[in-house]
Specification:
With 183 residues, the chain is mainly alpha-helical. The chain is built from six helices and two strands. It has a two-stranded antiparallel ribbon.
């Protein structure tokens, strides 16, 4: 036997109106704790659209779990991908550092510290969404999050490139050390 639907309270109707179109319909239903069909039915009766316009590339990152806008086929966002690459470079750098002749180690420890101070672009200012409807405000918020993500990715990429160059120099120095370095 089908269970009768719980009656909608005025509070729930207000929450429905404020969430409609600001997130995927399945999420609206989950937050209200109601089946999607019931939420769709009520939205229609209230003249509300549940249509949610995703930004290009929008989805949840499989690694950091955040709503992101730069997912690739692996399901990871650009900041997570660049961070993983940066970690790998740093791990390799630690290895190479141990292989360096002792008189060269000091030079590279100093370079590493200098690279930690590389330039960082600031995050863009949060948009003023007062006076916007919930749908427009949610969209402006997501566009801002996307901009923040791009800046974050570019900051990590810059550190990654600097680390790559540093690793190259260390590897070269290591090779020179092994071949005698007195040519
Ligand atoms: Zn991520």
């Amino acid at each position: 036997m089908k269970r009768p639907q719980r009656k909608w309270s005025s509070g729930e109707l207000r929450r429905l109106a404020s969430m409609a179109g600001t997130m995927p319909a399945a999420q609206v239903a989950a937050r209200l704790g109601r089946p999607p069909a019931s939420v769709e039915h009520m939205a229609r009766r209230q003249g509300l659209s549940l249509a949610y316009d995703k930004l290009p590339g929008e989805g949840r990152c499989s690694e950091c779990g955040l709503v992101r806008f730069t997912l690739d086929r692996s399901g990871r966002c650009a900041p997570c991908r660049h961070s993983a690459r940066l970690d790998a470079i740093r791990a390799r750098m630690a290895e190479v550092h141990r292989e360096l002749p002792p008189e060269r180690r000091g030079v590279y420890a100093a370079t590493e510290a200098a690279c930690g101070r590389s330039r960082m672009d600031p995050a863009p200012a949060r948009p003023d969404t007062s006076g916007m409807g919930p749908r427009a405000a949610a969209r402006a918020e997501r566009e801002w999050l996307r901009e923040c993500e791009l800046v974050e990715a570019s900051n990590i990429r810059r550190r990654m490139r600097a680390a790559e160059r540093r690793l190259e120099r260390m590897e070269k120095s290591c090779m020179e050390g092994k071949t005698g370095g007195n040519a």
